[in-house]
Amino acid sequence: MKLTGNLIIGAEDVPATEGTMKALNPAINQLIDPDFALGGAAQVHQAATLADEAFDSYSHTSLAERAAFLESIAANLEAVREPLAARAALETGLPAVQLEGEVTRAATQFRQFAEVVRRGRFLQLAIDPAQPDRQPRPRTDHRLQKIAIGPVAIFGASNFPISYSVAGGDTASALAAGATVILKAHNAHPGASEIQARAIRKAVQQHGLHDGVFSMVRGSGNTIGEALVDHPLIKAVTFTGSEHGGMALYRRAQLRPDPIPVFTEMTSINPTFILPAALAERGAQIGDGFSERMLVNVGQACLRPALLVAIKGAGVEALREAMAKRVAEAPARTMLTPGIHGSYLNGLAAMENAGARRIVQGSPAHADVDGQSALLEVDGQRFLSEAVLAQEVFGPSALLVTVEDEDQLLAVARSLKGQLSAAVHLEESDLPLAQRLLPVLERRTGRIVVNAFAHPQEVTYATVHGGPFPATSDSRFTSVGMTSIDRFLRPVAYQGFPDALLPEALRESNPLQLVRLVDGQ
Ligand code: NAP
């Protein structure tokens, strides 16, 4: 598939205005063709102006029309499955077969959101009819629906270059809400980004939508991201990446004359607690499962379990041995970027400086950006006294914390900051301790898993991929799952409207046959 390297701004292919960059093949540390255009504030302005012009017509597309558009994006992605996965593999070092799975996931998300749109429940329709005879005052007719928040900026993630990137869940849910989208491509996979952007643009054209429904920009350094967050026509931002980057953008948005919501997904160590009976009965099995999940995607996954807490005693040895075996056998594999690899090494060094012991490591690295897996251990007392041990080290490593007793296990849980997920392994006789642990975890996580590990592939109505800070900047929302659409919606009430002027979904005859809350019922 021929790549032009241009920015995709509406229907226009925009060449470089601020120089060019090449993609890096991290596996062999070599730059690969072609040159990719870098833009600046002027290109952000061009895309934002178009997105604003497109907003009124796109946000008023019928539910059927919008759903069909999302399905066309899914089909267009599937039509480029092989070249897209192949290019993404070159740019990330991830296996092509895994990336083909990401294409399926991305296409599935667009189809799932098409169904969400058709069902119309996201509109959260509510009708409180007039009560002219109500005492002491009559009530006028009030009707509520949710509408799209406006044009939005989406920062593509580096670690899942398709399903969390240009054609990821953020884009699918924003377009489903009726928002127009400007995507900030991640520079770690510019070619894969271009292929996805073209698939989306093709669907825009197939459905005769306004060109400004979707654009993709790219730039060097922080300028382009800052210009997006600052632009007065942008009304919300989503971001997946580092806490440092996410918080810089969040703070920036709050300093605008008109502050806007910034939904960041940043950091999580996904703690796993093994309660005593489960440890004694199946310590080895849990250790094996934990290590397998921790190594997925070379540890570069938001739901990767990175902290394991167990009470010293029966089963700890078997747990440690099983984990050590998996970790020792794990080949060093290419990490996404030299920057992420460097942060991984620094993170491990910081943990060791804080008193964690490296008890085993995987086979040695052959190339500069190979991530060598590592298992570290520390006792509960030390963990509680060194905040750095609870920081995310993004890569194929984990920390085993052995605690003295139940109280120390609970103290470790209480010491944790906000997380995307937590897992608890238990048997029947562990229930009293689990009941004490549960409220501690509920306050700190978006998802609690029993006798398993958080599964990243599930995208459902009940999925929560969020949590208190620093897992995200807004614990009220999820960035994955069908309710992630709520980030891009706001309520509008229509009071005393003649029926003909009401949005179709709120008209008296309910012409779209949607579920509506009428007088609270
Ligand atoms: P990142 O450095 O935070 O960058 C993410 C995106 O935001 C990039 O497009 C970047 O643009 C942009 N950006 C970052 N800081 C910015 C700022 N101050 N102003 C404007 N734009 C800004 O994340 P990354 O490159 O993907 O990975 C770095 C680290 O992030 C990892 O080591 C890991 O710790 C964390 N991470 C976490 C997750 C997770 O799911 N929890 C996922 C991915 C990464 P430029 O590239 O152009 O600078």
UniProtKB/TrEMBL annotation:
It is an enzyme of class 1 (oxidoreductase). Keywords: Oxidoreductase. Its EC number is 1.2.1.26. Residues 17-459 form the Aldehyde dehydrogenase domain. GO terms for molecular function: 2,5-dioxovalerate dehydrogenase (NADP+) activity. It comes from the Bacteria. Pfam families: Aldedh. CDD domains: ALDH_KGSADH (cd07129). This is Alpha-ketoglutaric semialdehyde dehydrogenase.
